[in-house]
């Protein structure tokens, strides 16, 4: 009775602030609608004890309750995320325990490798359900905005290779090479001598198979290796969607490692997600907590200002920056649509719990990029102190090959 009273008061408070296409189904068969509009999302509380998740509807609380099966949620993922965020705004303060907290954890090779395996070694078949055919798992590049996912991912890779001014026969290191799409493209298009490193065994195995199938084994070497263990020097270095795993404290060391591996006149590009909080905080209302618990253990996001500072501390000079936030919002929207279109097969491959984690995660990322909670920057850099004559006068070379 006490729970019912508290829940009724909470519902009245939310209704007084916002009308939502939401229905709550209670354990006793009763249901409550939050507007006259037909509900697009239904949250079912199978027992009275589940009401506590609604009474404090942070993204961490409701996300965990959905993932663990304590509540049932029906509806399209993007509708779910929008409504849960509306509930959080109506109920919680984006400060204190619901603020964009900075964690600043320690990182080591063993722990980082375990975190990578947790996220990436689900199965290659799992990722194939919602990524493009080349399995590019990072922000795509939409030159016009109407490209297919596959077209936009290829344009992203070419955009990167244009930015670093890759020349025929040069050496290229791709840190966090995923399933090998970028080294393969660099080898095919430029005859570049490529090394790709990943900590994911499943990524490594498939990338090596793709290199062999393409007959490019003489140009592309895919390694199961930590970037900190790479030796030698490279004309070009790319890091795409990897530095989020490095950790805030270790960014100067990470850029220092790139400095050590880069030829004196070389060019590097770092492509990564950043926080839009100047203090390097995660997403508000417990969103970062949910991702850290279920999706990216040990992942941390830095503000772009912190990234530039760490880059300089590592001995690198930033030449060019591009904000691709809206491109990542669109990428995540397309991934979410693909995920939901193949829901039955994904459940079969990954199981119910992992399905629910990713159902929330992909749509949540779309929301976060769409609303400027997080961003994505490509930063082109080189060793600090190089003569200015080595740099092109304009950015024209970045766009010459796009169509």
From TrEMBL:
* Tagged with keyword Methyltransferase: yes
Which CDD domains does the entry mention? AdoMet_MTases (cd02440)
User: What InterPro entries does its record include?
Assistant: CFA/CMAS, CMAS, DUF7884, SAM-dependent_MTases_sf
What sequence ranges are listed for the domain DUF7884?
A: 16-92
**Key words, A-Z:** Lipid metabolism, Methyltransferase, S-adenosyl-L-methionine, Transferase
Keyword Methyltransferase belongs to the record: yes
This protein's source sits in the domain of life called Bacteria
Give the family, as the similarity comment puts it.
Answer: Belongs to the CFA/CMAS family.
For this protein, the record's PANTHER family field holds: CYCLOPROPANE-FATTY-ACYL-PHOSPHOLIPID SYNTHASE
State the protein's name. Cyclopropane-fatty-acyl-phospholipid synthase
